[in-house]
Amino acid sequence: MKTITNLYQTNRKIWAIVPAAGSGRRFSKTELKQYQIIQNKTVLAHTIDRLNELPLAGYVLAIGEQDHYAQTLALKNKHLSHFCLGGNERVDSVLNALSYLEQFAQPDDFVFVHDAARPCVTRECLVNLLNTAINLNSNAILAIPVRDTLKRVDQQHNIVKTVNRDQLWQAQTPQISTFSILKTAIETALNDGVMITDEASALEHSNHTVQVVMGRSDNIKITYPDDLELAKLILQSQIMH
Questions:
Q1: Which pTM does this prediction carry?
Q2: In this structure, what CATH number is given to the domain that contains residue 51?
Q3: What is the rounded average pLDDT of the residues 12-36?
Q4: How is residue 2 annotated by DSSP?
Q5: Is residue 209 packed enough to be buried (19+ CB in 10 Å), middle (13-18) or exposed (0-12)?
Q6: How many Cβ atoms from other residues are within 10 Å of residue 110's Cβ?
Q7: 58 - beta bridge partners?
Q8: What is the pLDDT of residues 79-113, one digit of tens each?
Q9: What total of structural domains would you count in the chain?
Q10: DSSP-derived secondary structure for 31-81
Q11: CA 1 to CA 137: how far, in whole Å?
């Protein structure tokens, strides 16, 4: 089993943030994707299980104001769980969680941010990501090279051109940084009116290097209802192996 390099020599803790306040409109108008059931457990519980493969100091779930369900779940290492109010957008939820963490985390502590609806991330990917951040002293994200031919289309759905994919990667989560760097980068980007779709985009805006770490194609994000069936198959396959 792959081990984590020299974390304990640095006295740096690992925290995880899970933004889980989204409405999930693409999945359903009435049901939240993170609370769908796979193998008698919610998607969110599976996700938390995976993150706890790391020696976390704690994890923060940023949840919606009307969400009275998350805190009732039997989450792994529940004693390490924290909850805060999420925001309108993912970036607002992450910033709220970072502000909440300020009372616990040191500036150089590592912070993972991971989608609530990515329950299939493997321990090996998590450890590779963390080791990269430690060894290169860098921000890092999981990603995979784009495999399919990409087309740019116009509003009438006509192809405008084929996009060269040679240097294109598909971003995944978790994405890792240090507490102070990430919080400052997000605040700066928001103040500058920049569109922030993930943590890496905020770090890029502040000219921080972000290392890409090879992920896996089965680290899917449940976005549409048929993704749930695929996630069920992936989780079953991972358990068998």
A1: 0.93
A2: 3.90.550.10
A3: 76
A4: -
A5: exposed
A6: 24
A7: 15
A8: 999 999 999 999 999 999 999 999 999 999 999 99
A9: 1
A10: --GGG-EETTEEHHHHHHHHHTTS--SEEEEEE-TT--SGGGS--TTGGGE
A11: 23
